[in-house]
Write a structure and sequence with these properties.
Layout lengths: L23 H17 L6 E5 L6 H14 L3 E6 L6 H13 L3 H7 L29 H17 L5 E6 L6 H13 L5 E7 L3 H8 L7 E5 L5 H13 L4 E2 L1 H11 L3 H13 L6 E2 L1 H25 L2 H12 L3 E3 H8 L7 H9 L3 E2 L5 E4 L4 H9 L1
Parallel strand pairs: 1-4, 1-5, 2-3, 3-4, 6-7
Antiparallel strand pairs: 8-10, 9-10
Bound molecules: adenosine-5'-triphosphate (ATP) and magnesium ion (MG).
C-alpha cells in the first residue's frame, strides 16, 4: 500500500540520487570540475560560493556534490562551519584521514572512499579526539602543504580532493583566509573548493581576501521556477505510482512560490494525508497544506526571532504594504527616510529574512510570511 512506503518528500528521502529540480546549471558545473580532474589531472574552474536564504537548498546541493564526487572516487572533506573548533582544524583532521596510508584498503579496492565530518551545533558527534597541535611549520603553511600533498596523491590516480564548507558565513576568519589562500595558490590543482551560506557570506569572503572574484564565482540560489517546482512535486510521487491532478499541482506551486523548503513541507503533509489513494487532487492538496501550516509557521517564527527589534518593525511595515514593495514605500510607512533604514535592511538581507526581487524593492523571502506577520504580530 502506498501509505506504507517512506514519505518520499521527507528530506533526504526518495530516489537516490536526488535530481534536484532547478539546479541543473550547478550540477553540470560540478560534473565538469570532476571530469576536468579525471581527464586533465587538474581543473581551471574557479571555486564557487553559493549563497541563499534559509531553506533554499544549499545543503541539498552540497550533498549532491558530495555524493557525485564520492561515487567517482574523489577525496571529499565536508564541513559545517560554526562549531566549537576551527574549520581548518577539522579539515586538517579529515584530510589527514583521507591520506592515511591504508594499504590493504587501497590495494584491494584501488580507490579512496569518501570521508566527511560535519561540524557544528547539530553534528559535533563526528569529531574525533584531535591530537595536540603537532610541532612543525605554522598552521597555515601546514594546512596548505597537507591539501597540496593530498590533492597530488589523488591526482596520481586521476582523481582529486574536494572541500565543501556549509554554513560558511559562520566560518572562523583564519580558516576562511587559509582556504582562500589555498584556492589562490595551488597551481593546476586536482582540488576544488565550494562554499555555501547565507547572503552575508559574500561580505565574509570579501573581508577574508581581496579580489575574491578571481577565486570564486558567486551564485545565488533562489526559488524554483514553475517547471522545476512541478518536477519537485510530481517526481517523488510518480516513483510510487501516484499522480497529481493539474489543479492540485498548480495550487501547491502558487502556495509555495517554489520556495524549496515549503515545496517539501507541503509535499510531505499531502503524502501523509494520501491514505490508499493513487491520485493527489485539489481537495487532498488543500487538506495536506492545512496540515503543513504548523511547520510553515514555525519557520516564520524562527525568522522573526532571529532579527532585531528594528528588523521586526521593518517586517511589520513590509507586511502592511503587501509583502513586496519598493524600499521607499516601506520607509514611508515607517515615517523614515530610506537612508536611515539601510543598516536594518542589510541585516534582514544578511539573515535571509527578506530578498531583493529587483533593485530598489524588497520582499519576504518566505512566501506567506506577510500574512503571518499581519495576523500574528499586528
Ligand atoms: N532543488 C530542490 N528541489 C526540491 N526540493 C529541494 C531542492 N533543494 C532542496 N530541497 C528541499 O528543501 C529543503 C531545504 O533544503 P536545504 O536544507 O538544502 O536548504 P538550505 O539552504 O541548506 O537551508 P538552511 O540555510 O536552513 O541550512 C529540504 O527539505 C530539501 O530536501
Ligand atoms: Mg543548510
Amino acid at each position: 500500500m502506498v501509505s506504507d512506503v517512506e514519505n518520499p518528500y521527507a528530506p533526504g528521502a526518495g530516489t537516490e540520487p536526488y535530481r534536484l529540480p532547478g539546479r541543473a546549471e550547478a550540477q553540470v558545473w560540478w560534473r565538469r570540475c570532476l571530469t576536468d580532474i579525471e581527464g586533465l589531472g587538474h581543473t581551471t574552474m574557479r571555486g564557487r560560493a553559493f549563497t541563499g536564504v534559509r531553506g533554499v537548498g544549499k545543503t541539498a546541493l552540497l550533498r549532491y556534490f558530495e555524493r557525485e564526487a564520492g561515487t567517482r572516487g574523489f577525496g571529499v572533506a565536508s564541513v559545517q562551519a560554526g562549531g566549537a573548533d576551527s574549520v581548518r582544524a577539522y579539515l586538517t583532521d579529515v584530510i589527514s584521514g583521507l591520506q592515511r596510508p591504508e594499504p590493504s584498503f587501497t590495494d584491494k579496492h584501488g580507490q579512496i572512499v569518501e570521508l566527511g565530518v560535519r561540524v557544528g551545533p547539530v553534528e559535533v558527534g563526528a569529531a574525533r579526539d584531535l591530537p595536540d597541535e603537532p610541532p612543525g611549520p605554522p598552521l597555515e603553511i601546514a594546512f596548505f602543504n597537507l591539501i597540496s600533498a593530498t590533492a597530488s596523491a589523488f591526482a596520481a590516480r586521476r582523481r582529486g580532493l574536494v572541500v565543501l564548507v556549509d554554513e560558511a558565513q559562520d566560518c572562523d576568519l583564519p580558516s576562511l583566509v587559509s582556504l582562500c589562500r589555498v584556492q589562490h595558490q595551488l597551481r593546476r590543482p586536482a582540488f576544488q573548493l565550494v562554499l555555501a551560506g547565507l547572503p552575508e557570506l559574500e561580505d565574509a569572503i570579501d573581508e577574508a581576501i581581496t579580489h575574491s572574484d578571481r577565486l570564486f564565482e558567486y551564485r545565488e540560489l533562489g526559488n524554483l521556477d514553475r517547471d522545476a517546482t512541478r518536477e519537485a512535486l510530481l517526481e517523488p510521487a510518480a516513483v510510487h505510482g501516484v499522480g497529481w491532478t493539474d489543479d492540485a499541482v498548480d495550487f501547491v506551486i502558487e502556495l509555495s512560490e517554489g520556495y524549496p523548503s515549503f515545496v517539501q513541507e507541503y509535499g510531505f503533509a499531502i503524502w501523509e494525508a494520501l491514505g490508499s489513494r493513487r491520485e493527489i487532487d485539489l481537495d487532498l492538496a488543500r487538506a495536506g497544506a492545512e496540515q503543513a501550516r504548523l511547520n510553515v509557521a514555525r519557520q516564520y517564527r524562527s525568522v522573526w526571532r532571529s532579527v532585531t527589534p528594528a528588523g521586526r518593525d521593518y517586517l511589520t511595515a513590509l507586511a502592511a504594504v503587501g509583502g513586496e514593495a519598493r524600499t521607499a514605500a516601506v520607509a514611508d510607512a515607517l515615517g523614515r527616510r530610506p537612508s536611515e533604514l539601510t543598516m536594518t535592511l542589510k541585516m534582514l538581507k544578511d539573515r535571509g529574512a527578506v530578498r531583493v526581487p529587483q533593485r530598489g524593492s524588497v520582499a519576504f523571502s518566505r512566501p506567506g510570511m506577510d500574512a503571518w506577520v499581519r495576523d500574528e504580530q499586528g
